[in-house]
Amino acid sequence: MSIEQKEDTNNATAFSSTAAFQWNTLAILQSIFIFVLAGFAEIIGGWLIWAALRGVRISNDVLAVTAEMEDATNIADDEDDANVNHTATHASQYATVKKPWYYALLGSLTLVAYGFLPCLQPSAGSSGFARIYAAYGGFFIVLSFLMGWALEGVSAKPDVGDLVGGGIALVGAGVIMFWPRS
């Protein structure tokens, strides 16, 4: 038997031992925790970059209160004014405010950390990349709605269609990840 054949035999043994993974309560809780942690990292990282490059929606009421406070204390910052895009239509009640450049840097670092998190899944050896990322997609959908709402307030509040779609996505993620396999 050659050295290459021995290595192949050892690899086959290693793969067969990981294929015997069985779900238990602790592994399920760990898996859900890692999905949620990865979701927060991806969404916060993406939002930080978005906020620096595209800006975030802020209620005109909040913007007006802030402007009144600045006028009362005679603080005017031309750079901040340049980063505010008031919508031209009367129908919109939001303005867009860009965040500083370092938000994009922090977002990029957060996204690098996110890239490693799915590798921590307890079933990574047997489920593989495709199944873990497909199941993660369901968590990402729901977390995107919730984090958008938390970060941008009522302007990003999920509606009934968002909630129904998110629920369907979570059920699908559960089926993908936890379906009994041989």
SSE string = HHEHHEEHHH
Helix percentage range = 55-70%
Distance between the termini: 31 Å
Which stretches are poorly predicted, pLDDT < 50 over at least 5 residues? 1-10, 12-18, 87-91
Query: Structural class per helix/strand content?
Result: mainly alpha
Number of helices: 7
> Could you describe the largest sheet, including whether it forms a barrel?
3 strands, antiparallel
Radius of gyration: 23 Å
Strand residue percentage? 5-15%
The overall strand count is: 3
Which geometry do the CA atoms define? flat
Query: For the residues shown, what is the average pLDDT?
Result: 80
How would you write the strand order of the largest sheet?
A: 1-3-2
Search tags:
182 residues, mainly alpha, three-stranded antiparallel sheet, 70% helix, flat, disordered N terminus
What does this structure look like?
The chain is mainly alpha-helical and 182 residues long. The protein has 7 helices and 3 strands; from the N terminus they run ααβααββααα. A 3-stranded antiparallel β-sheet has the order 1-3-2. β2 (84-86) and β3 form a beta hairpin. α2 (25-53) crosses α6. It is flat.
List the helices and strands and how they pair.
Elements: H1 3-19, H2 25-53, E1 56-59, H3 60-72, H4 78-82, E2 84-86, E3 94-97, H5 102-116, H6 124-152, H7 160-178
Antiparallel strand pairs: 1-3, 2-3
